[in-house]
Amino acid sequence: MLLSLALDAFAEIFTPPFRRVLYKTLALTALLLVFVFAAAETTLTHFLVLPYHWLTTGVTLIAALALLIGFAFAITPVSFVVAGFFFDELAAKVEADIDPKHPGATPLLGAQIRVTAVFAALALALNIVALLLLLVPGVNAVIFLIVNAYLLGRGYFELAALRYSRIEDVARIRRANEWQIFLAGLFIAALAAVPLVNLLTPLFGASLMVRLHNKLAAASAIPAKS
Asked: Which residues are within 8 A (CB) of 128 and not within 5 positions of it... i.e. 6 or more apart?
């Protein structure tokens, strides 16, 4: 089931409605990453005062490499923040395709902020752990994939569930289906691990998790939002 959902979600990325959102997400993601890079570089050059020019150059190059590595870890929280801006637009399109008789509703802003804040806190904590394991061969890639599968699966599923359920019920629904959500998150994490292609993560994650939520809702009683 999950493979079929993932293939359908990936194919939907290239439909005209999703392409329009893609251009906006690419622009916003690039803007956020450039802003972070520029801020870090400006801070470094402003405070870095070394007695030798060659030493300054060397430290700057090392810092640039560290920033590039940091971007690999930053793409997860950044892509999720970007997804928050366009998730409802994407979700409505998917719902109209797969179940037009039962469209979701835009959740309250407070609920969306709560989900995003919890995700950001978890992403920061877990990616710091993953970063510390970066130099451990044979473990780093696996940890990176597992961490992001959990984070992205949880985050995108909760956004999808919020369109149909009260925020008080979302955590219970997620816990009841945590393994399916985690396995679906592996597809999203695998995409997020591919440079440049990972810019498609918000679109793929939204489409996949809306589809998964729809399947789970059809198979079990999920309380509707009051």
From this structure: none
The type of residue at 158 is E
pTM for this predicted structure:
0.78
Per-residue exposure over 84-106, b if at least 16 CB sit within 10 Å of its own CB, e if not: bebbbebbbbbbeebeeeeebee
What is the mean pLDDT of the segment spanning 176-185?
94
- Per-residue buried b or exposed e for 10-46, using 16+ beta carbons within 10 Å of the residue's own CB: bebbeeeebeebbeebeebbeebeeeebeeeeeeeee
Query: CA–CA separation, 158 vs 215, rounded Å?
Result: 15
Which candidate, 90, 88, 93, places its Cα nearest to that of 106?
88
Cα angle value 161/166/168 (rounded, 5°): 105
> Which tokens belong to 186?
């592996």
Query: What proportions of the chain, in percent to the nearest 5, are helix, strand and coil?
Result: 80, 0, 20
* Closest by CA position to 79, among listed 202, 219, 182, 175: 202
Enumerate the domain spans of the chain.
Answer: 2-219
pLDDT digits (tens, 9 = 90+) for 71-110: 666 666 776 777 778 888 899 999 999 988 888 888 888 8
Return d(Cα 82, Cα 80) in angstroms, integer: 5
Coil, strand or helix at 113: helix
Between CA 80 and CA 116 the distance in angstroms is: 8
User: Can you tell me the distance from the alpha carbon of 173 to that of 28, in angstroms, rounded to the nearest whole number?
Assistant: 31
Place of tokens 């710091």: 128
